[in-house]
Amino acid sequence: MNPIEHLSKLANMKHIQSPHWERNPLKIKSNPVVSLPPGYLDKINDKKPPAKEISQKEAGQLFSRIARKICPEKWDKFGFEFTRNTKSVANFCMKQVSQKNNRGIFLLGKPGSGKSTMFKILRLWIMQFSDLESQRFNIVSTQDMVSAYEKDGDEGLKKYMSGNWLFDDIDTEENAVHYGKKEDILRRILERRYAKMDEQQIITHLCTNLTKEQFVERYGQRVGSRMNEMFDLAILSEKDYRHVNRDKRLNATKYNN
Questions:
Q1: What's the number of CA atoms in the CB half-sphere (13 Å) around residue 126?
Q2: What CATH code is assigned to 70-246?
Q3: How many H helices and E strands in the chain?
Q4: More confident residue, 62 or 254
Q5: Could you tell me if 109 and 118 are in contact, meaning their C-beta atoms sit under 8 angstroms apart?
Q6: Residue 200 in this model has a pLDDT that exceeds 70
Q7: N or C terminus of the chain: which is more exposed, having fewer CB within 10 Å?
């Protein structure tokens, strides 16, 4: 006998009584319909905090406060400040990420000009706004990627193939070697990320001391031809703050002695 026939037979037996809730149904008093304010359920269901409303001027002031917080020794004592060029690059970076597209920033500049610091400030600035969550990014140096590949092979590069990343210190890395096989890590990763850019909405930022022409020469025309689709270009033409800071520290030590 199949289960359905067995249940039917049990239901027809006289000694089987109906469940308690069928014999003694509860009387439920209907409540009046409550009208909720517009958007009330949306606020409950949305786990993210509401986006902060902030003007362009306030956004710039917040950027400046973060800059002073993370590098006070450069910002206040040694003259690493919002010059005309630095301010224009900062405004460009803020505007670019606020557009919420998947184009990254390709930041060029001399060694010590503040490129990495600019991205660290931008990263903290983005984290202040819930509506810019899709623009958040991690930071890794290209040399660290080389080390990951040499240790774990392709498995060590998996996390760099997706998500939003800033690849820092470009051209400081050597070709990676894994079991005797040489690999140009950054070229490989950029080509792979280009293929996934639109499908997965991933963002790639680059930071380098090279000029645009030197970058193309170093990583090839195949990567160079994709630059216009992947990046917006910005150039920090400031002085070498590491050199300036070192000279000021040396002078301060000299006068104190």
A1: 23
A2: 3.40.50.300
A3: 13, 7
A4: 62
A5: no
A6: yes
A7: C
